Amino acid sequence: MNVQNWIFLFVIVISYIAVVAGSGQCDRSFKGKQSVEVDSDSDSDSDASESSIEDCSNKIYEIVQPSKFNDQIAEDPTACQDDKMLQCDPDSLFRTINGSCNNLKHPTWGMSTDCFLRFQPAFYTGYDGFRESTAGGPLPEPRDLTQKIFKNDERPSRNLTFMFTIYGQMVAHDLSRIQFLPVAHREQKNMVTGMLDSSTVYGPTEEKAATMRKYDGTGWRNTSFRREIFMA
């Protein structure tokens, strides 16, 4: 696994922990209301239960609601913003190299250098520091979390070969590649297209795709390009 896979997995784990924590708080609140209202009649008990469940649902929604992150972080002049204005040709027979205009209603969806959507808001210490724990210390390493949560058990399969792993890695590289520098970015960009279109092979932009062609009339590929330009 490369860095982007670990980051994605870490985000999923943190989201799960947040939902579980919110559910636990709701569960304790729900039980508390039940104990207080145990002497009430059945109708009031039913109303209280429905109210408690609704409160819990609202709390969990507030925890995982992705649209609130803009209100919780300081303004960042280098932040990723989807404000591109594109002119698309609805009669085009071929896809664009950078993935734009594949969706005519939302032409920026899935294009390279577009913004990732967050399941959870961004939390940083200062402008570009790593998030700290409530005690002020560093958070657990993502690798430590994954090793504790996911056991590395051998599970042989008669239906899958190692090529399944290679294919999965290729799909992951073709769909997402997080921009690493500059580290001050609070909102990360996807440096490849969001579609399964072999952008890791042919390049995610017109400029990078051009480095692969000789343009001498033969249609041959230029094999002197740098491999790390495309692969994460």
UniProtKB/TrEMBL annotation:
Q: What InterPro entries does the entry give?
A: Haem_peroxidase_animal (IPR019791), Haem_peroxidase_sf (IPR010255), Haem_peroxidase_sf_animal (IPR037120)
Q: Does the keyword Protein biosynthesis apply?
A: no
Q: Name one Pfam family in it.
A: An_peroxidase
- Quote one Gene Ontology molecular function term: heme binding
Q: What is its main location?
A: secreted
Q: Which GO terms describe its biological process?
A: response to oxidative stress
Q: Which UniProt keywords apply?
A: Glycoprotein, Membrane, Oxidoreductase, Peroxidase, Secreted, Transmembrane, Transmembrane helix
Database matches in PROSITE patterns: PEROXIDASE_3 (PS50292)
Q: Which SUPFAM superfamilies match?
A: Heme-dependent peroxidases
Q: Could you tell me where this protein is found in the cell? A: Secreted
Q: Where are the transmembrane segments?
A: 6-24
Q: Which GO terms describe its cellular component?
A: extracellular region
Protein name, entry field: Chorion peroxidase
- Lineage, uppermost ranks: Eukaryota, Metazoa, Ecdysozoa, Arthropoda, Chelicerata
